[in-house]
């Protein structure tokens, strides 16, 4: 039986939709995942964040200090009245010793009595904090590794008016 061309068009729409759906499925599996779904590295942290009358600065972030190594950084704190210091040190295996953190204001350099010592006795992680009045325009922070292992060291400063 012969069919008219009009009948042929009305009988095949499901075939056309089926073919289009199959092609779309193949394309979807062949294309890479959307960019938003892929893992992207986090943005680099801002070195200084100022909100109102408070300033936050990461002076050391996961810095590796070898045994006996010393590292220093300074920061302008002349517009502030107090600073808060948060520090953390971590080793890969249990260690004994300490990480010394010495602070001074200047110039000229005026050492501050409160020394922040991060003691490692039996664990792999230690933390400490200190709050100091600002007594000079610049803050100098010196970190020294007094352990027998390499450590990962982080230190942040919060300055307030």
Features:
16% helix; 2 helices; Jelly Rolls; alpha+beta
Q: What would your notes on this structure say?
A:
- The protein has 161 residues and is an alpha+beta fold.
- It has helices at residues 5-11, 13-30; strands at residues 48-51, 54-65, 70-76, 82-90, 97-106, 110-111, 116-120, 125-133, 138-145, 151-160.
Q: What's the rounded overall pLDDT mean?
A: 75
Number of strands: 10
Instruction: Give the low-pLDDT segments.
Output: 17-38
How much is the radius of gyration in Å?
A: 31 Å
Topology:
Blueprint: H1 5-11, H2 13-30, E1 48-51, E2 54-65, E3 70-76, E4 82-90, E5 97-106, E6 110-111, E7 116-120, E8 125-133, E9 138-145, E10 151-160
Antiparallel strand pairs: 1-2, 2-10, 3-9, 4-8, 4-10, 5-6, 5-7, 5-9
Brief overview, please?
The protein has helices at residues 5-11, 13-30, and strands spanning 48-51, 54-65, 70-76, 82-90, 97-106, 110-111, 116-120, 125-133, 138-145, 151-160. The protein has 161 residues and is α+β, with helices and mostly antiparallel strands.
């Amino acid at each position: 039986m012969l069919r008219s061309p009009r009948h042929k068009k009305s009988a095949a729409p499901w075939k056309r939709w089926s073919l289009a759906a199959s092609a779309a499925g193949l394309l979807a599996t062949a294309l890479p995942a959307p960019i938003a779904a892929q893992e992207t590295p986090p943005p680099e942290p801002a070195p200084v964040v100022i909100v109102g009358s408070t300033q936050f600065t990461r002076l050391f972030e996961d810095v590796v200090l070898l045994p006996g190594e010393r590292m220093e950084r300074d920061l302008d704190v002349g517009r502030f009245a107090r600073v808060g210091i948060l520090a953390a040190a971590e080793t890969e295996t249990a260690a004994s010793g300490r990480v010394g953190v010495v602070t001074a204001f200047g110039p000229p350099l005026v050492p501050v009595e409160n020394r922040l010592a991060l003691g490692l006795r039996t664990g792999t992680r230690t933390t400490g904090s200190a709050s100091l009045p600002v007594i000079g325009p610049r803050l100098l922070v010196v970190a020294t590794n007094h352990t027998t292992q390499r450590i990962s060291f982080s230190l942040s400063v919060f300055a307030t008016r």
